[in-house]
Amino acid sequence: MSVFCEVPQAAPVAVFKLTQDFNNDQFPKKVNLGVGAYRTDEGQPWILPVVKKVEKIIVHDDRLNHEYLPILGLPEFRSSASKIALGDDSPAILENRVGAVQCLGGTGALKMGAEFLRRFYNGNNNTKTPVYVSAPTWENHNAVFANAGFEDVRPYKYWDAEKRGLDLAGFLGDLESCPEHSIFVLHACAHNPTGTDPTQEQWELIAEVMMRRKLFVFFDSAYQGFASGSLEKDAWAVRYFVSMGFEMFCAQSFSKNFGLYNERVGNLTVVARDADNLKRVLSQMEKIVRTTWSNPPAQGARIVATTLNSPELFIEWKDNVKTMADRVLLMRAQLKAKLQALGTPGTWDHITEQIGMFSFTGLNPKQVEYMVKEKHIYLMASGRINMCGLTTKNIDYVAESIHEAVTTVQ
Amino acid sequence: MSIFSDVPQAPPVAVFKLTADFREDSHPQKVNLGVGAYRTDDSQPWVLPVVKKVERLIVEDDSLNHEYLPILGLPEFRSASSKVALGDDSPAIKGNRVGGVQALGGTGALRIGAEFLRRWYNGTNNTATPVYVSAPTWENHNAVFADAGFKDIRPYHYWDAAKRGLDLAGLLDDLEKAPEHSIFVLHACAHNPTGTDPTQEEWKKIAEIMKRRKLFVFFDSAYQGFASGSLDKDAWAIRFFVSEGFELFVAQSFSKNFGLYNERVGNLTVVAQDNENLTRILSQMEKIVRTTWSNPPSQGARIVSKTLNCPELFAEWKGNVKTMADRVLLMRDQLKSKLQALGTPGTWDHITQQIGMFSFTGLNPKQVEYMIKEKHVYLMASGRINMCGLTTKNIDYVAQSIHEAVTKVQ
What we know:
The complex is a heterodimer.
Chain A: H1 14-24, E1 31-32, H2 49-59, H3 75-86, H4 91-94, E2 98-104, H5 105-120, E3 131-135, H6 141-147, E4 153-157, E5 159-160, E6 165-166, H7 168-177, E7 183-187, H8 200-212, E8 216-221, H9 231-234, H10 236-243, E9 248-253, E10 265-271, H11 275-290, H12 298-308, H13 311-342, H14 349-353, E11 358-360, H15 365-373, E12 377-378, E13 384-386, H16 395-408
Parallel strand pairs in A: 1-12, 3-4, 3-7, 7-8, 8-9
Antiparallel strand pairs in A: 2-10, 5-6, 9-10, 11-13
Helix pairs in contact in A: 2-12, 2-13, 3-12, 5-11, 7-8, 8-10, 13-16, 15-16
Chain B: H1 14-24, E1 31-32, H2 49-60, H3 75-86, H4 91-94, E2 98-104, H5 105-120, E3 131-135, H6 141-147, E4 153-157, E5 159-160, E6 165-166, H7 168-177, E7 183-187, H8 200-212, E8 216-221, H9 231-234, H10 236-243, E9 248-253, E10 265-271, H11 275-290, H12 299-308, H13 311-342, H14 349-353, E11 358-360, H15 365-373, E12 377-378, E13 384-386, H16 395-408
Parallel strand pairs in B: 1-12, 3-4, 3-7, 7-8, 8-9
Antiparallel strand pairs in B: 2-10, 5-6, 9-10, 11-13
Helix pairs in contact in B: 2-12, 2-13, 3-12, 5-11, 7-8, 8-10, 13-16, 15-16
């Protein structure tokens, strides 16, 4: 008799199951529009040239060793990562009230922030503080906060399926009616999965309500640079909130914009009222890190730090990022054009209006099932597609398949 | 007014504070016998030659990319790691009832194991199950299990200060008296901080009681190979328990034996009754990993995996490990000789009887304070020294200082 005989089988994570099914599929024209990783026009993973270059520099640098990093991570990584989010000339940084915790990707940054807030925000160990995540949102947000101990994770209105855009009125309504001090997880840009971001004016409205009602701002920034091709543009919302005087967290991921998915490079940027508050916050972050991973992994942080802190490499990186962003924009433009040329019922403007890696196609679950089963095109049940999965070679097949799904399946 | 104004300042982790104080000390003869990392006879960190070699192979390998690893980690790393712990010819491995979760160092492996047990062991979400850790133990054990949700963490008798050895009677008694199903954290070898391990006969007695009383076996294995120079010798206890039919966890760290401290290379080996139970366990492990770090970092796991899976590199690695273990043994030998030659009061056999990186000197807190303040020799308040901090250049000064501390300070 096993001590584990009562342990139930957990359901697989949907997006990985999708890729697994894709991998097992023998159909020659199969297409994977599921998991969010960049692909080249040949459908291949892409190691950024600047990353390859820096990895060689690192391996030949005999001054480097493998001694433990500080608990909060590589200092030059933390500072340059926060600068990327907030801007080189950020007054908050100049005022010494910005700190950071090097974390295991965006997930790790969210986790650390959540664990801290559960212990120290809105009273001690207040697990009842509501945490709001967008409807819909990245499938892991809810679980990260729940596992950090928060008992009340709720949706805020976000996606308007009718008009295929932001439900601003609903969103603002939730901000007005939620309990004070509630925590809100905001997508800094390139909302996952809808690709629909608030405009600058809309962000200003959101910020006004949040400031007035004392709501906590927790940005998730996984696509800076990747969304529009411009680091500054993609960080506008984060910087605006900082300029409005919010104390806030920003969970940054370098998985996508550095293509360093498997080295787990993330940063939790903390903006506090002043250096003294920051110091105390970081001291408690250390305690949380210590019992989770002790101190973070060096390789990915070294690659990013070396790149961000060297003017030439930084320029090369921005260029690599623009390469990726431009290819995505091209695929958006082409997919829309092809659907319009096919006369596929409905409007397809949202494909080019949405931003970042993902598009919420508007396909319903039956239509998605048709795509997966009949056409061997793999996308999420929500209708979300990863634009990076499109290439000049498969885009016609995908467009035709969407056309068939929309016209033959209700 | 900051929302963080009530956040208290956390005290620093003792061992890192010690190193920080050491760094600031400008005394020319200062010695750091604090934090547990290997040092050469020149007091330098050591990047293992085999690691350097494999890092170069990896950077030149164009077949590798940075796509996300599976949630449970690099498959070839997981299997090779579990083999190192359990033995190539392990019947349990052949019986397909052994799995691994690639984790962030030993800390990460302990944490994931603890999170799993808190959710699924001894009932569902049973936070009241007692967790026993040795008295004394690694300073982070208690906090890892507490942060995983366990409410009742207790010491088990281990170190007998009077006789400077294992308090076997006390240990066995605690095993007899512990509530059934209690969890016990056992050090596989090279006990931290005492350097005192049970003999094979003593392990057999421990195992007999644990089986009879249905206690859960959770090994912490951070020094395999590093302790005696032999991988098999250092894994004897683990393999014995497996052969006795226990379902158990082993948190493995490759920080020390690969010198890969900052790449966070660990593995939680799970030994279950059969493959069916194992499958369900691993599925739940995935859920826990997903909300903590999503999937683990690649670099360190690739280095270890490549090394363990290649006969020539494996042999080279074992040579490197023996180099480290032998230097530690030499320092133990020399320190004891010098103390005996100085006629330092007390017996010093424990220095060569203890095993691994650490020695529990027996110095009391006042004597430790003397060592630090007057002699600039930094060690933990418990009297624990890291043998790796000793070199042929500083050993006379250290022996002399211990002699002074013991003779002048009561």
